[in-house]
């Protein structure tokens, strides 16, 4: 089993310990959603998709684990380092990169490095794509608009003839 799957197993174990069923469901949906979105964005931006997926799995873990969103980004970053070391296979440089992404993911008003911005974008996109009819948090609106507005896709070519 590779390190990302070991990490997911570890996170699943933590989330299965969340007592409230609705909170547990939201945690699974959000963390897996951000993980997958981060991996996709990383591939499209030439960044490490596996580390992006790992950061997405861990970015809000402390909040879900404690049912307390206060200062969840730095708490999740600290928790992530311990989990990545326990899971094994992650270098200290990789752990530092994941921690930085997680620590900065809630600060959507400021621009940080490419990896940090990727995690912020994945977080905003997951919230939006989960239910596009829901209102976007005011702090996320500009980022969401930038991420979801693009040139129209080319028309498909008819190859049936």
Please explain how this structure is put together.
There is one protein chain. By secondary structure, this protein is an all-alpha fold. Helices cover 68% and strands 0% of the residues. It is built from eight helices and no strands. α2 runs antiparallel to α3 (49-58), α5 runs antiparallel to α6 and α7 (114-130) crosses α8 (141-148). The mean pLDDT is 92.
Helix percent reads 55-70%
Q: Provide the low-confidence segments as ranges.
A: none
Structural class: mainly alpha
Task: Kindly provide the radius of gyration, computed on alpha-carbon positions and rounded to a whole number of angstroms.
Answer: 17 Å
Largest sheet: none
- Oligomeric organization of the protein chains: single chain
Q: Treating each run of at least 4 consecutive H or I residues as one helix, how many helices? A: 8
How many domains would you count in the coordinates? Answer: 1
Q: Report strand %.
A: under 5%
Cα distance spanning the termini: 46 Å
The CATH topology turns out to be: Hypothetical protein af1432
Shape: globular
Give a count of the beta strands, DSSP E runs of length 2 or more.
Answer: 0
The CATH class is identified as Mainly Alpha
Order of helices and strands: HHHHHHHH
CATH superfamily: Hypothetical protein af1432
**On the 0-100 scale, what is the average pLDDT?**
92
């Amino acid at each position: 089993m590779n390190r990302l799957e070991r990490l997911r197993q570890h996170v699943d174990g933590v989330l299965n310990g969340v007592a409230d069923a609705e909170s547990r469901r939201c945690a699974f949906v959000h963390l897996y959603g951000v993980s997958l979105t981060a991996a996709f964005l990383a591939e499209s931006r030439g960044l490490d998709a596996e580390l992006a997926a790992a950061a997405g799995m861990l970015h809000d873990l402390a909040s879900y684990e404690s049912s307390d969103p206060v200062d969840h980004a730095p708490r999740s970053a600290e928790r992530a380092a311990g989990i990545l070391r326990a899971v094994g296979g992650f270098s200290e440089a990789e752990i530092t990169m994941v921690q930085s992404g997680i620590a900065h993911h809630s600060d959507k008003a400021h621009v940080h490095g490419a990896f940090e911005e990727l995690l912020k974008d994945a977080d905003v996109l997951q919230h939006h794509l989960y239910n596009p009819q829901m209102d976007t948090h005011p702090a996320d609106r500009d980022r969401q608009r930038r991420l979801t507005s693009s040139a129209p896709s080319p028309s498909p070519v008819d190859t049936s003839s």
